[in-house]
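Hi R.,

As promised on Friday, here is the backbone we talked about, encoded as structure tokens. Could you run it through your design pipeline when you get a chance and send me back a sequence?
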């Protein structure tokens, strides 16, 4: 029997609570609001990768009819901060400014205009006269880290930078056991280098926010953000305002993926509203999204591993050089996650991780779904296949031989913990072995393969990975639940639904606990004035952390209901039965939720039945994913045809299986794009060449292979109703699974992404000439 079968609502397919309004096209998103006399913001961006602003003349722009404000670095407070929407104190360096006297990449902000139409604002930007002192630029992180390189952050005000003299934003090292001894005693040593580049997030809804001054003189920000409370805190800091003077509201979000964990437009829009006293609409164009928003961090990863004759990995050393672009937002924590997830899959007794995140004059990297894991897992799972081949062991068998199991602890989670006093994560639930076996059966692992036509070769590949469920001792969520006279409940959460359906999942957890239908749970989320605090939608935390807060509040509300019912029924509270919104005694006396609420509000010992739930966890239980790929490769051209991809995912009890499968579908699709088609080329000036979806190649529906998603149910004892995270774990497996399948097909080992036909063709040709 599945664990979820014992529940009535959790683990069942339930329509999303926002489905009706979305399907009707009702006003739901940030931009779905009208104001009279709203102004439109546009930004003048730098054409240079590295330059100092010598002078800036905005007189012609200011004089243009319809322009209400033109802001430069001379008009806004110069307060160093990070744009990373992380918990306070943020681990990212304070190296950004609302507007600065120096630009550090092509697309950096120079000035901002608020005007009556977007066209006037664009025209005004073109009239701003900027004189630049062009500085030497640097695009390669290895060159940037050399002594004597041009300094990208030479300003005194910035803080939290690991070493300004080598452009090193962050540095990290951790070890467990004795790696050098493991290498010395090894049966075999395997070494290889891997590389992953820039890719963009490509949310269908761009960054957009509307700001205005309300009737109480407060700044209101209606934003498509993943982190409303972090937006409020950081905007207050950079605009030098009290937090109490700012309200942030998050309506529906048309895709986040981490890119909206950044404060990219709210503070500048707010500054324009403060300057004009008028509502301001600030949205980023697709061009801006593709060159000036946050990318995934490129990394170069060097692996050295030792193995025993018995096929066990005895030691592994990993060094990462991370390119954080012009600013260090999320640089340290992305690198931390890379290291922690590399060493959370296999039980290796001796490990070492070192890493440096280095500034360059290229676009800024930031949070992106998987948050360092896709980079590390591409390298790790390619490397694991190379080790298996060196030992002559089947890749699936080799993985099963070395993985962590239920009951094991993961030492690296303590050594690289972000949270205070975190202990090593103990694996209390794991479906990875079942996921590997089910995935292998589904893809036909070990069975003969036939290419579809002559001249092609066919191959299978596998990759496994894990993620976390929130950040232990850091992520925190709160919610409140109050009862209404008809037996319904208002659920107020700070949790941020970014299109994932988390509002529905949280409603299901409350409904299951309170024994009422989901439609009796009225969900209101993400308003810093109205809802309790939540760190936001990132780190795969919402179901586990925010769901845990909902469970705590719902249990307390149920406890209050039972107390009132015991009084009304003159019964022993311990004997009462709660089901379907009715409280019963063993003798058959009943009282409904409606009667209970009316009694408590109007008749006796009057009080509001309501409770607050707070949740922070010392643990981050790992979900798991096993991905298998079936590819066909043209032996002459290197063209790759992805025929089928299988994703078997352990997310504990899926609160809503349809939504969980949807998460896997989306993540695997992004993972395939990361593997095969997405990349960001630059010209010699460091300017991004792909500025539209005509060039930047996310997958279309017609590009998709056959996809099979399987949820492998386990029960996580620390999660709400056995749930773990599902949002990020499926994205990391497709790239290495495809890389391994390509190697299996034509012996072309591609150690960099994307895996293009040209790279495969060159590798095939190299084999024929050797």
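Update: got your reply. Pasting your designed sequence below so it's all in one thread:
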């Amino acid at each position: 029997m599945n664990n979820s079968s014992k529940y009535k609502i959790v683990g069942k397919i339930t329509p999303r609570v926002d489905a009706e309004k979305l399907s009707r096209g009702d006003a739901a998103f940030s931009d779905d609001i009208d104001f009279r006399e709203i102004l439109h913001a546009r930004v003048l961006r730098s054409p240079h990768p590295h330059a100092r602003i010598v002078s800036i003349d905005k007189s012609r722009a200011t004089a243009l009819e319809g322009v209400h404000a033109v802001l430069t670095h001379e008009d806004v407070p110069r307060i160093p901060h990070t744009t990373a929407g992380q918990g306070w104190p943020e681990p990212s360096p304070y190296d950004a400014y609302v507007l600065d006297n120096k630009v550090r990449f092509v697309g950096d902000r120079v000035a901002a205009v608020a005007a009556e139409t977007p066209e006037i604002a664009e025209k005004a930007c073109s009239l701003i006269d900027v004189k630049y002192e062009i500085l030497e630029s640097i695009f390669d992180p290895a060159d940037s880290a050399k002594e004597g390189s041009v300094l990208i952050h030479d300003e005194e005000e910035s803080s939290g930078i690991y070493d300004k003299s080598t452009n090193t934003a962050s540095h990290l090292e951790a070890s467990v056991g004795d790696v050098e001894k493991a290498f010395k005693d090894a049966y075999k040593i395997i070494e290889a280098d891997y590389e992953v580049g820039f890719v963009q997030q490509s949310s269908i809804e761009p960054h957009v926010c509307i700001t205005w001054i309300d009737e109480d003189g407060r700044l209101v920000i209606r934003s498509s953000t993943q982190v409303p409370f972090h937006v409020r805190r950081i905007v207050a800091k950079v605009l030098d305002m009290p937090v109490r003077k700012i309200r942030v509201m998050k309506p529906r979000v048309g895709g986040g993926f981490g890119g909206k964990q950044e404060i990219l437009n709210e503070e500048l829009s707010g500054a324009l509203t403060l300057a004009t006293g008028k509502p301001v609409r600030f949205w980023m164009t697709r061009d801006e999204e593709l060159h000036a928003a946050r990318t995934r961090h490129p990394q170069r990863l060097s692996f050295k591993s030792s193995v025993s004759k018995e096929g066990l990995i005895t030691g592994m050393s990993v060094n990462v050089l991370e390119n954080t672009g012009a600013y260090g937002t999320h640089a340290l924590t992305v690198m931390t996650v890379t290291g922690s997830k590399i060493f959370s899959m296999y039980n290796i007794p001796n490990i070492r991780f070192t890493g440096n995140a280095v500034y360059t004059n290229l676009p800024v990297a930031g949070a992106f779904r998987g948050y360092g894991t896709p980079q590390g897992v591409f390298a790790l799972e390619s490397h694991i296949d190379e080790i298996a081949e060196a030992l002559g062991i089947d890749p699936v068998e080799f993985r099963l031989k070395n993985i962590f199991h239920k009951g094991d602890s993961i030492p690296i989670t303590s050594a690289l913990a972000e949270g205070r006093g975190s202990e090593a994560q103990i694996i209390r639930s794991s479906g990875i072995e079942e996921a590997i076996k089910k995935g292998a059966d589904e893809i036909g692992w070990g069975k003969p393969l036939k290419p579809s036509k002559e001249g092609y070769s066919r191959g299978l590949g596998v990759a496994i990975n894990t993620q976390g469920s929130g950040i232990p001792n850091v992520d925190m969520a709160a919610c409140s639940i109050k009862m209404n006279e008809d037996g319904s409940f208002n659920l107020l959460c700070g949790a941020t639904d970014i299109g994932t359906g988390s509002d529905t999942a949280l409603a299901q957890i409350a409904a299951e606990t309170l024994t009422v239908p989901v439609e009796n749970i009225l969900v209101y989320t993400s308003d810093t004035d109205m809802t309790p605090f939540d760190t936001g939608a990132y780190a795969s935390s919402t179901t586990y952390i925010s769901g845990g807060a909902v469970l705590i509040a719902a249990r307390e509300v149920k406890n209050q209901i039972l107390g009132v019912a015991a009084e009304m029924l003159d019964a022993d509270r311990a004997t009462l039965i709660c089901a379907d919104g009715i409280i019963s005694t063993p003798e058959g006396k009943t009282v409904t939720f409606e009667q209970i609420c009316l009694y408590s509000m109007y008749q006796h010992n009057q009080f509001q039945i309501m409770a607050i739930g707070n949740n922070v966890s010392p643990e981050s239980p790992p979900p798991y994913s096993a991905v298998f790929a079936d590819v066909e490769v043209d032996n002459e051209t290197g063209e790759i045809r992805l025929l089928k991809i299988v994703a078997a995912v352990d997310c504990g009890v899926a609160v809503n299986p349809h939504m969980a499968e949807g998460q896997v579908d989306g993540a695997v699709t992004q993972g395939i794009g990361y593997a095969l088609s997405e990349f960001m080329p630059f010209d010699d000036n460091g300017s991004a060449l792909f500025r539209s979806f005509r060039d930047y190649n996310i997958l279309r529906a017609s590009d998709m292979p056959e996809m099979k998603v399987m949820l492998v149910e386990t029960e996580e004892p620390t999660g709400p109703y056995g749930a773990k995270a599902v949002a990020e774990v499926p994205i990391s497996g497709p790239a290495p699974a495809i890389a391994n399948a390509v190697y299996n097909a034509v012996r072309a080992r591609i150690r960099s992404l994307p895996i293009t036909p040209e790279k495969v063709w060159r590798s095939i040709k190299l084999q024929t000439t050797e």
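One thing I noticed while checking it: Residues 49 and 685 are 7 Å apart (CA to CA).

Thanks again,
M.
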